[in-house]
Amino acid sequence: MSFNSVSFLFMILPLAVLLYVLIPGRGKLAVMFVTGLLFYGWGGPKELVLLLMTIAFHYGAGAELFFLKQGKRHKQAKLMLAFAVACDIALLCVYKYSGAGLPLGISFYTFSELSYLFDIYYGKAEAEKNPFKLSLYVSFFPKVTSGPIVKYADFSEQLDSLRFDFENISDGTALFLKGLFKKVLIADNLGVAFASVTELNLISGATAWLGMIFYSLQLYYDFSGYSDMAIGLAKVFGFSFDKNFDYPYMSKSISEFWRRWHISLGAWFRDYVYIPLGGNRVSSAMLLRNLLVVWLLTGIWHGSTGNFVVWGLYHGFFVILERFVIKDSFDGIPSVIRIIITDFIAFVGWVFFFSASLPDALYYIMEMFGADGLGFFDKTAFFLFFDNLFLLIVAIALATPFPKLLHDKLAYEKGGVWRVLSVVAAVVLMILAVSGIIGSTYTTFLYFKF
């Protein structure tokens, strides 16, 4: 099931919210747990069984790990952690590399379960005695399929302080609708534009560049839209999750880009891989190793083919270049130029992301420079550009903070008629988004395949 499906929007979500409001006390946790199982298992029982099996394994591993830590048996605790991590890696490899089909959200909920074990090992949390609470953490329906990856220590702190709050429901609903608008009205239309490029047998250089831009913007609105919806839903049920995107296409360097894009994944690798390896408090050679390990793992996490490994190392190369070679030498360059350079690097990187294989990615980059022999401009490129011009203008504008700043200034500072217009606009966008869902073919979120 997905957030932008009719069954979720008009059946599961209203029922879950109604029960959450009506059922008192700890019963609210049961509502969320049952909703999570129903949400995840909607497509079939096999993936749900696998999810429950991994929860049971990590519940037992966490209890044993905590017991060993309490007894100061540090060597055995390290071996226990290594064994559990090896099992998780093996599970991911089986599904990612065997061609057996990737269970929905397995990369995300596995990282959540690893967060639980790491937090116990590093003394940030105790082993959960109540298997129900751990199950709720892993299967919490707003985040189980595509994140954000919330650390167990952060989640468990909020479990005991949940309360019904109209302000949370209002704010969470507004954020959910914002994400729905991003997905249905922007990302899906950009996906149609991108498909019109990939369906062509031969493409000109300009058409290939347009395809790259379409996909880069589609991926941003698709995944940030999902994150907004997930964080909004969590807020409705009383949980506060940090934002997962912070206008990444406004970044002035690749390092900054990755502090703004998929923030929860970056934080996971920082806390559980980069810092345990020594972080930046090591020699230059070891720092280089740490960065390469993180970016290699980032690429592998996203996909099983060579293009994802190259994509991870591609970004790692620019992060290392900025840290060791460029350093502060770009500080005098105008911000606009630095943003354009950063976006160019990120956009080209997405070619490796959307291609089926490494040769396909390399050939697409060659097509951007005329490999198909059609020159740089042709009628198709002009048609695609002008046919999607309004969509591009809206997508580029909303990828910056300026429309939100203008809206907040008018709606919240000036108020009055501007506030009324803001509410009317929100209602209109909601109607358009729901109409788009009902009247068009259902499209899943891009990050479901990871």
How would you briefly describe this protein structure?
With 450 residues, the chain is mainly alpha-helical.
Walk me through this protein's architecture.
The chain is mostly helical and 450 residues long. Helix content is 72%, strand content 0%. It is built from 19 helices and no strands. Helix 8 (166-198) runs antiparallel to helix 9 (205-236), helix 8 packs across helix 19 and helix 14 (335-354) crosses helix 15 (358-367). The radius of gyration is 23 Å and the shape is globular. The two termini are 16 Å apart.
Radius of gyration: 23 Å
On the 0-100 scale, what is the average pLDDT?
A: 88
**H and E string:** HHHHHHHHHHHHHHHHHHH
Which structural class fits the helix and strand makeup? mainly alpha
Strand content: under 5%
Q: Which descriptor suits the 3D outline? A: globular
Q: How large is the count of helical segments? A: 19
Largest sheet: none
Proportion in helices = over 70%
**What's the total number of strands?**
0
Spans of at least 5 consecutive residues whose pLDDT stays below 50 are none
The N- and C-terminal alpha carbons lie at a distance of 16 Å
Topology:
Blueprint: H1 6-22, H2 27-41, H3 45-70, H4 74-97, H5 106-121, H6 131-139, H7 152-159, H8 166-198, H9 205-236, H10 254-260, H11 263-274, H12 284-302, H13 306-326, H14 335-354, H15 358-367, H16 379-387, H17 389-398, H18 402-414, H19 417-439
Helix pairs in contact: 1-2, 2-6, 3-4, 3-5, 3-6, 4-5, 8-9, 8-19, 9-14, 9-16, 11-12, 12-13, 13-14, 14-15, 18-19
